[in-house]
Task: structure prediction
Amino acid sequence: MTGTMRRLLDPVERFSEILFGLIMVLTFTGSLSAAEAGHAEVRTMLFGAVGCNLAWGIVDGIMYILSTLGERGRNLVLLRAVKRTSDPAQARGIIGDALPPVMASLMKEDELDRMRRELARMPEPRGRLRKDDLLAAFWVCVLVFLSTFPVVVPFIFMTDAMRALRFSNGIAIVMLYMTGSSLGRYAGYRPWVMGASMVVIGIVLVAVTMALGG
Result:
């Protein structure tokens, strides 16, 4: 499960889902008029924000399963193509196309031929879902939900709507910065630049979403 959790926490694979979840929550909290909001308005906003978080987590978990099946099926198609072809050059082309471009450019013909022979002897894996896939989808749902839930926490514990909104916005800014900073470290960019950029991008996207009626 360690490898699975590393994949789930991969910033490149997860930052967009977290960003989207934050934008959805902020459209709810941002639409609340803190100066005029009463208990009923805050309650309605909370139910809507939490419901959207949960819905997006479920959707993302299902999409994880679909993408896993698609990737596994595609790998099986490529394996069968390598097994069935009798042309070494065609097999090398199939393997090269399946590799990342940087790695493919470094591979020599004898190395590709060795991979072709190994793949030809490999038994075909099953393409069906496994227990680990369902467990991973569950953790994706939990990760996405929990990563956006802190934005609405101030409204649960604070009776002053204006104060809660300020704390909520502060939490959202910190989370946007941390998401961008994490992506920057992973991708080799300056973390603080990516963090600040993510804050600006998040604010702009929330403003656009709200302006378009989102």
Summary: The chain has a mean pLDDT of 82. The CA atoms of residues 29 and 46 lie 8 Å apart. The first helix runs from residue 2 to 8.
